Amino acid sequence: MGERITIKSESGYLAMCRAGELTGRTLNYVGSLVKPGVTTKELDEAAEAFIRKNGGVPSFLNYSGFPASICTSVNEQVVHGIPSKKVRLHEGDIISVDCGAIVDGFQGDAARTFLVGEVGEAVKELVKVTEECFWKGFEQAQPGNHIVDISRAIQQHAEAHGYGVVRELVGHGIGAEMHEAPEVPNFVNIRMGRGARLVPGMAIAVEPMITLGKRYVSFLDDGWTCVTSDGMPAAHYENTIFITKDGPQVLTNPK
Ligand code: MG
Ligand code: MG
Question: What pLDDT does residue 82 have?
Fold first, then answer.
């Protein structure tokens, strides 16, 4: 992760809008393909083709050696699941898809958790509240506020529902690099204090990772896939947002 918080110029902002727009559109497209029987490899191939056809570069591909263009994390997988021919979606699953695209040298980063066919009420509620957690954080992303205001809002909303908040992975600044300073935790961390002050020109990826059971996670032997330690489902929802003088703006078109 870069050490510096970068403040974007007008041209940087406009490139981030284009990167964010393509990232969000790719996720909407992948979401339209999610159904029982599809493999996560098929989703990855579709996402890569869509990004390239629309003038972007998939930022995840080969990032620290990651072997695919999206992360596909099914059920108890929290984030960073690797697409595979062997992983086929089944009715009642949930799948978190994390996607990044580079356009004109700037990055977009976003994630959605999709339902596969009919999903049980408890898991559906988890997915809904995880998205709400993002919006609670978003409301706090005002110039003059601090990172901790976002963190607190997310944590309070998740824990009010009895869910776990993953501590091992956090949101981040974003710009020409996918991961820049500052860190954007989804929980209040006494070591970070208030965190960075939000100022116009900053861009951050806010990404609650919320568990139905306990908050503890482990990593699989593939070196990537993060799973809940208790095997309970987890959801992930992320957008790249830009701090303007008038408040935060989502760049990765959420609808
Ligand atoms: Mg992401
Ligand atoms: Mg991210």
Answer: 98
Helices assigned H by DSSP within the chain: 10-33, 40-53, 121-139, 147-160
The pLDDT tens digits for 66-94 are: 999 999 999 999 999 999 999 999 999 99
**The pLDDT value given to residue 191:** 87
Contact 109, 203 (CB under 8 A): no
The residues of the chain scoring below 50 in pLDDT are none
Asked whether the bond before 182 is cis by omega within 30 degrees of 0, the reply is yes
- Integer Cα distance of 126 and 240 in angstroms: 21
What number of CA atoms fall less than 13 Å from residue 200's CA on the CB side?
A: 6
Rounded distance, CA 255 to CA 240, Å? 14
| Rounded CA separation 145/133 (Å) | 17
Backbone angles phi, psi at 39, to 5 degrees: -95, 155
Report how far residue 116's alpha carbon sits from residue 95's, in angstroms, rounded to the nearest whole number: 7
Using the mean position of ligand 2's atoms as its centre, give its distance from the Cα of residue 169 in Å.
Answer: 9
Picking from 231, 244, 249, 241, the residue whose alpha carbon sits closest to that of residue 107 is: 241
Domains of the chain, CATH where assigned: 10-242 (3.90.230.10)
- Measured in angstroms, how far is the CA atom of residue 62 from the centroid of ligand 2? 16
CA of 57 to the centre of ligand 1 (A): 15
Residue 135 backbone dihedrals phi, psi, to 5 degrees: -70, -30
In the prediction, which pLDDT does 4 show?
84
3-state secondary structure of 128: helix
